[in-house]
Write a structure and sequence with these properties.
- The protein folds into 4 domains: 5-158 and 233-271, no CATH class; 280-361, Sandwich (Immunoglobulin-like), CATH 2.60.40; 367-448, Immunoglobulin-like (Sandwich); 454-539, Quinohemoprotein amine dehydrogenase alpha subunit, domain 2 (Lipocalin, Beta Barrel), CATH 2.40.128.
- The protein has 10 helices and 29 strands.
- The protein has helices at residues 5-22, 33-46, 62-74, 91-111, 117-137, 140-144, 181-188, 193-205, 235-259, 263-271, and strands spanning 50-51, 57-58, 166-167, 171-172, 280-285, 289-291, 295-303, 307-312, 321-323, 327-332, 337-347, 350-361, 367-369, 374-376, 380-386, 396-399, 405-408, 417-422, 429-433, 440-444, 446-448, 454-462, 469-477, 482-489, 492-502, 508-512, 515-520, 523-528, 533-539.
- The strands form 8 sheets. It has an 8-stranded antiparallel β-barrel with strand order 22-23-24-25-26-27-28-29.
- It is elongated, with a radius of gyration of 47 Å.
- It starts with a helix and ends with a strand.
- The relative contact order is 0.08.
Amino acid sequence: MMSSPTRAGLRIAAIIALAVVASVGASSAFAFKPFGHIAITTVALENVTAQDANGNPVSFAGSAVNQVVIENVLQDTNQVSSYVHFDDEDFGGSITHIQSLQAEIIQVLQADPASNSGLARKYLGEALHTLQDFYSHSTWVDLFGPSPAATDFSDVLLAPSGTVVCSGGLLPNGALTSGYFDVTATIFGGLLGQAAVDGLEKLVIQHKCLHGQTTMVTPSFLPGINKDDPSHALYDSAEIAAYQHSLAFVQNIVDLLTAAGDFDAVCGLLVSKTCPQAPAITFTADNANIQVGEPVTLMWGTEGASTCTASGGGAADGWSGVEPLSGITLVTENAPGEYQYALTCVAVDGVTQSQAFVTVAVVSPLTISPATPTVNVGATVTLSVTDASGNPVAVTWQSSDTTLATISPSPPDTAPAGVVTGVSAGAPTITVTDPVSNATASVVVTVGGNPWVGTWDGSIISSCGLYSGPITLVITSGGGFVLDWTTYVGGAAAGSGSGPYSPGPPPTWNFGGGGSCTLAGDTMACSYPPACQTSTYTKE
């Protein structure tokens, strides 16, 4: 978060006061004077906010700040390149210079943050010097006061070329411009030769603005645009704008790297090394819902950890104290509730905690009704499930052997009732599970033989002149829900066929030719087309 101008101003003033004492007798031909750049840069870097990959705050180290400051001040040894100082109306060159340095900073940090940290801070010091000179060497604060320009200078609009002129080399005609250093040097520095000619031409003929400066010989502020000296009326405004823009510029670089996930690049710029690496933990419980007294399996592994400590869980479950860096253990809780198991691991560079959550429920017994169900092959029986209070419970249903009996619904669907269909004789187990409490119950279903299969004695009654009299019907299984049959009259085979049957209710058999039979225990009643024949059978 950007520091307020007032607090930052107090910090800058304090640094300047110390720097002034240290710089007595030194040359004062520097932009913002060296202590101005030192203070602005130091306080801006102190207020940059950043974090590592684990969300821990990271700030500029003192050694990193010192390097950026030194590289900043060293730019005043180059009094030839106008783009370094926003001199000579070279706004385009200066802005391009800053943007190029920003791109270089990001590029070298992303390539190798540890090895290139020094190079990145060199570029940062150079960029900040030029950025700060914008407010000292231009008329921005004359026009807009202490408010900084956009971080990328996108709102810096220049007057058309040749339209900005100064009266006597001092004040421009209400437009954004910067002074010419060679004009100032001609008048106050005693330059000779071509430099003097160029300077006089800009001053007298082209009416360009003076840069202005102070000298060892004449320490008072000499006329010009620059606000390098604290005695200038707009020095404070230039300093505030330069500080705010410097902070925004560096913060933008940090934010761009953070958004890209390049946390090591952030740490390389701020502290000369990759970010501290907290240990990695994989920690899981094999079941999130268990019953009281049922164990849960905790499993974990770590990377980069030196020690791990267990915490949470129940008071007497044993999950506490120092644990190995990887392992598997069983934990049992004897009371219902929501349990949180935590594993905290420590490394040289950080701490990581991982958690697993388990719900322990009271066992509510389930009851299946009827308790001793039976069903014949092809028939069905309905089972229902209730809890200890007699309330229906929606459960999943499972048959131990679907070749003996099937159950509906099938997992994962749940219902408080299930329909068992007998497939073949046997004793399959039907198991139900409550997905909420994990309570289970089971029951054995006795599947009897196919009630249709066997020998049936009966008689046919006809009212239309067809055969009437005794008849024997032998039924065998044709596989699945199909029956094969043969009729006998007087001991001789009289007919045969096959047809499907349905478990009902009521159980019904369509034996073919439009005829059908209905089963009721050991009695079977059949009808034949046309509807003039009926028969009744009893199973032997």
